Amino acid sequence: MKKQIDTQSVYEKVRETLDIGVRQNRLFIKGGKNWTAISAIELAITIRSLYREEEQKLISSGTVKEVIERLLQNPSIQLCFIEETEDHFIKLKDEVFDVDIGALNENIKEDFGYFMDFSYVESSRRNMRTFEAYLHSVFPDDLDRKRKLMLEIIGYVLSDYTNAKAGFFFVGASNSGKSTVLELVRKILPESAVTTIPLYRLENRFNLARLADARVNICTELSEKKLFLCGYFQNYDEQ
What we know:
This protein is an alpha+beta fold. It has three domains: 7-77, no CATH class; 81-119; 125-233, no CATH class. It has helices at 7-17, 40-48, 53-56, 61-73, 129-138, 143-158, 178-188, 205-212; strands spanning 20-23, 26-31, 34-37, 89-91, 96-98, 103-104, 194-195, 216-217. The chain starts with 6 loop residues before the first helix and ends in a 22-residue tail after the last strand. Residues 170-224 form the NrS-1 polymerase-like helicase domain.
């Protein structure tokens, strides 16, 4: 019978192979220039993947759990970086956008605990041919105001570097472009970042928990049922 692989051996292999960091008792793994949050379960799977299949059988779940606990308590891998809700920066793939100056900031050297999976390409409105064609096809009139509103919505969707939240209500006749706008917002984001919880179901605590991890919640129709937590919309401003 083969001997079990001991905790110290697994711990040393993890430290040699993976770039693991800890911040506020949360685990992060570094890929390239960016730190990404990783759950204990995901890290456990990653640790086992470092070994061949026959070796994985020699590592107990208790050993993996102890390795993760050691990582969490290791003072040398505690991180200090900028998170999504900190300061006025948006971390893109290879650049940092400074909201205060409205441009890329090449002087930011700190690590980030997140990044947006796209690059920054500066373009004036006159070069946004596809977006302008989309606006003309959806909105028959008042284009300047609706262009500004659409850009504001996209801005909220793409970045939550602050804790600001906004609700947008689209009112209009059938086939007036409401669903098209919602579909555009849905396509911008990964599927995991979008929820579709009706407003009348917001009182459900499980639904509220789902909202915590979502960047946007889309309700395709307003129901005649009683709405809960209407305080979210007390500052409704008609656009």
